[in-house]
Amino acid sequence: MKDETNINTNIKRLLKQFRLPDIYDRYDEEVNYAIENKIGYREFLYKLLALEEQGKMERLKMRNIKNACFDAYKTIEDFHFNFPKHINQTKVIDLATLSFMEKKENVVFIGPPGLGKSHLSIAIGIKACEKGKSVRFVNAIELVDELYNAIDSGNLKQKFKKLSKIDLLIIDDIGYLKMDKEKESLFFQLIRQRYEKSSLIVTTNLPFERWDEIFTSELAATAVLDRLLHHSHVISITGDSHRVNRYLQEE
Question: For the AAA+ ATPase domain, which residue ranges apply (predicted)?
Fold first, then answer.
């Protein structure tokens, strides 16, 4: 009995040393279950390893969601597909499988404000976090300001390097940008850096033919759109603003 106690103590010590918290927490429970149900060694070992794997994936998911800086928690299941006048629900559901990320493709949600573009981009981002992918959700104006400020601090190279390591970059509300030559150049570098290497999701309320309002010229807008839309899925959403509709109903 003393030897068994010593063995259990050392097992717990080693589990903590090797940083296997899920096995550590459930070890006694799993041992008792294995004894009672006469589970073989291999099945017992598999159950322990599967338990640890599940725990690590859950912690990674939560860490990824925190690091993504979503401004809300949204899911595909919570989205009301019957609200917009037009949206390709089948396509959106397919995008939620993340197959576009495997192909290094982009997604653009385009349509008037208040129709759920940000909701869907976050929901897909959450799916990516659940699959262990790194995600960053950022407002377009804030992102360009970050890059611009990195010039003054001398950290631009490091900033681009950090962004390049993110599996899925979500740029929200690009239609509200208004860039000068320097900011335009930074944004173009970002798009070019990720081109055919990693995926982007962009939301915008501006039709593509009006993107020259964001950039300094039609030529600059075309250069960005050329790389953004190549290997891209464009989801057009039309209808009346959900937020405005809800406000009018409350009135």
Answer: 103-236
